[in-house]
Design goal:
Layout (H helix, E strand, L loop, with lengths): L5 H15 L8 H15 L4 H10 L3 H8 L10 H14 L3 E7 L5 H15 L6 E8 L2 H9 L1 E3 L8 H7 E3 L6 E4 L1 H4 L2 E5 L6 E3 L3 E5 L9 H12 L2 E8 L13 E5 L2 E4 L13 E4 L3
Parallel strand pairs: 1-2, 1-8, 2-6, 7-12, 8-9
Antiparallel strand pairs: 3-5, 4-5, 9-11, 10-11
The structure holds S-adenosylmethionine.
Length: 283
């Protein structure tokens, strides 16, 4: 196995910063290098320097980001946030809801939301007009999200009733679980780079931007949060990972619990021209 030298690691950190706005802690660089070595083997590269050249010149960057930001994703991760979301929405009894999972990865959050909304609708606390949009920069992740096939361990926090209602398969320890067609119809996935100006469109009622900010430097985080919040309606709910709340200025947001906020009715002044909106967002 080829491990990157210290000089490779420094060049790699610099490249990630310049090309992706990612800021990996120095201490995590050896681990990041180790995560990429199977990819080097697959590409038949015999040095990390050759991989760095590929990252500079070619289309390899999204794949590297994909490998680096892989986390132990699971449905209903940080379940307290979903519980509070459920009780907030249940109390509001909305007729119609539009939700967005930004940086959706393989879709765990998006389908968790859909299960939660499906249950609210069954309980008569939400009308039939609801949908979830999942967006991500990574094509492989979007393909996985659309396929909606998961190892059982990913559903460890999903109740037996919900599994029965919304999932197929999963027999035997190794069996994969698939989301049922009725649930999949409610969730759409699109490619979207949150570092770019976002398409304009109807505001969302709830936005999840979880376990993503941690990878970016402060300026990129600020720009992403401003852009995403511009797409949330006043009074709408906004979630980041509980540990990510300290990574941005929650100006104009009312904290409900760690990582979960309500957007104020009064909009704070926009800080960055890069938060501009330009084209219709797919619904
Ligand atoms: C650790 S995953 C989090 C997935 C999901 N939100 C969750 O909490 O399980 C981070 C995701 O952010 C995506 N990502 C990284 N940079 C991005 C960008 N500039 N725009 C959109 N998505 C991005 C990655 O592809 C990855 O799927």
């Amino acid at each position: 196995m080829m491990l990157p030298t210290e000089s490779d690691q420094r060049r790699f950190a610099d490249l990630l910063q310049r090309r992706a706005g990612l800021s990996l802690p120095v201490a995590s660089l050896p681990l990041a290098g180790a995560r990429l070595t199977p990819r080097l083997d697959r590409l038949g590269l015999d040095s990390f320097a050759a991989y760095l050249a590929l990252l500079e010149e070619g289309d390899e960057l999204p794949m590297a980001l994909d490998l680096l930001t892989t986390q132990e994703a699971c449905f209903f991760r940080e379940p307290e946030q979903f519980e509070l979301l459920e009780s907030e929405l249940s109390r509001q009894r909305p007729v119609r809801l539009r939700l967005w999972s930004a940086g959706a990865g393989t879709g765990d959050d998006a389908y968790s939301l859909a299960m939660l909304l499906g249950d609210l609708q069954r309980a008569g606390r939400l009308g039939a007009d609801w949908s979830v949009l999942g967006t991500d920069i990574s094509e492989p992740r979007l393909q996985a999200a659309k396929a909606a096939l998961y190892a059982q361990a990913r559903l460890r926090l999903v109740s037996a009733q919900r599994r029965q209602r919304y999932c197929l398969g999963g027999e035997g320890a190794a069996g994969l679980v698939q989301m049922q067609a009725g649930l999949r119809e409610r969730v759409r996935f699109e490619r979207l780079d949150l570092r770019q100006a976002l398409p304009a469109g109807e505001p969302f009622d709830v936005i999840l931007l979880r376990h993503l900010l941690v990878y970016f430097d402060a300026a990129t985080r600020r720009a992403i949060v401003a852009r995403v919040l511009a797409r949330l309606r006043p009074g709408g709910l906004f979630a980041v990972g509980a540990a990510e709340a300290r990574l941005f200025d929650p100006d104009g947001l009312e904290p409900l619990m760690p990582g979960l906020f309500r957007k104020g009715r009064q909009q704070p002044a926009r800080r960055s021209a890069s938060a501009a909106l330009v084209a219709p967002m797919p619904r």
